[in-house]
């Protein structure tokens, strides 16, 4: 701590700040995965346990002030693209997560993740992060009733005569105002405020009690392993590839950004990044066995870093606080879709900010980036958005006379996505 110019008190405060900033995932993750048919109580427990493990691994393996928990982009892809979009039962889809986790861990051990991450153009990395952000925001707008389906225009403005829609609007404004005031834990505070308003107005039914033992994990525990025979379906391997790619970019981009904020970067490289990626991989593997989607390094860790977090003690503190959170599962009944929707919308805003790093003045870059970003919400499928970008980038760069700027890995990715598009479109219809 002396080398990082920090103190125990400062690290503990940073850990508390990070926890408050990301505690919303305890309720948002069950809400998103619940839409796929999973047991919300079990998902709540698994979310907390995975976060605990992820934070402890990041603390002791990498000694970074970065928290790890199930990622919003990954659970959105699981529910809306795989389960609801492709029609794959959640039990089988979880088997895909398990296989992806094993491959992820192997790739991390062999340092392949670092090689591939370095080979992907930064513009496409930023486009993927931005696209996932807009997709998540779209899911939030839909869940909150602000955007609804329309036969004529596909989507339309939701009705403002629905009381619960105003609960979402209230939550968005509370979080937005708090974040504009730079108050730590704005998302969590907004979630709590919306819940209280919902209870006071009768829009949300009050729970019979507020504390209890954590719900059983039996509905999700080991389901991924039991459904491994489903991997005989070629369509499942498309799911595995996309989970690998999404997790690749999500954690890597966040780690680098947070390391820069904390002043950890040295010579434009992140020390111990291999250990950090291994911590993420192992927590992802454990989560897939217990029953949740891939983990990610949380951008909300920036709140803890902003108040002085510099070492693994920050992540350790966050993990310990997640242990205590296991006692508050009854609150799941009051944290409705309209309450969690503002969190999705605001996180979408934060992720979409990555667009500012894209070189829009270069047409050969702008087109793949644009197709990646709009492809996700407009097709309601994260995998299609990523595919659009990787299919067009090498071709347009070559057309622009910049073939030398396209490395071999990008050409390999082009071939991978051609096969992926075939699996996603041709096989399900045959």
Q: What topology emerges from the helices and strands here?
A:
Layout: H1 8-22, H2 25-34, H3 40-62, E1 68-70, H4 72-86, H5 90-109, H6 112-119, H7 122-143, E2 147-150, E3 154-157, H8 163-180, H9 186-201, H10 223-226, H11 234-262, H12 273-290, E4 295-297, H13 301-306, H14 312-325, H15 337-352, H16 363-379, H17 382-399, H18 408-429
Helix pairs in contact: 1-14, 2-3, 2-4, 3-12, 3-14, 4-11, 5-11, 5-12, 7-11, 7-15, 7-16, 7-17, 8-9, 8-15, 9-15, 11-18, 16-17, 17-18
Keywords: Cell membrane, Membrane, Transmembrane, Transmembrane helix, Transport
Family: Belongs to the nucleobase:cation symporter-2 (NCS2) (TC 2.A.40) family. Azg-like subfamily.
GO molecular function: purine nucleobase transmembrane transporter activity
Short structural summary:
With 430 residues, this protein is mostly helical. The chain has helices spanning 8-22, 25-34, 40-62, 72-86, 90-109, 112-119, 122-143, 163-180, 186-201, 223-226, 234-262, 273-290, 301-306, 312-325, 337-352, 363-379, 382-399, 408-429, and strands at 68-70, 147-150, 154-157, 295-297. The protein has one domain (8-211, 224-429).
Mean pLDDT: 86
For the report, how would you describe the main beta sheet?
2 strands, antiparallel
Order of helices and strands: HHHEHHHHEEHHHHHEHHHHHH
Instruction: Count the E strands.
Output: 4
- What quaternary form is this? single chain
Q: Please give the alpha-carbon distance between the first and last residues.
A: 60 Å
| Structural classification | mainly alpha
Give helix % range: 55-70%
Number of helices: 18
Query: Low-confidence stretches at least 5 residues in length (pLDDT < 50)?
Result: none
State Rg.
Answer: 21 Å
Give the DSSP E fraction (strand runs of 2 or more residues).
Answer: under 5%
Walk across the major sheet and give the strand order.
1-4
Tell me the count of domains: 1
Question: Which descriptor suits the 3D outline?
Answer: globular
InterPro entries: Azg-like, Azg-like_bact_archaea, NCS2
Main location: membrane
Pfam families: Xan_ur_permease
Transmembrane segments: 12-36, 42-61, 68-88, 94-112, 124-148, 154-180, 187-206, 236-258, 311-332, 339-358, 408-427
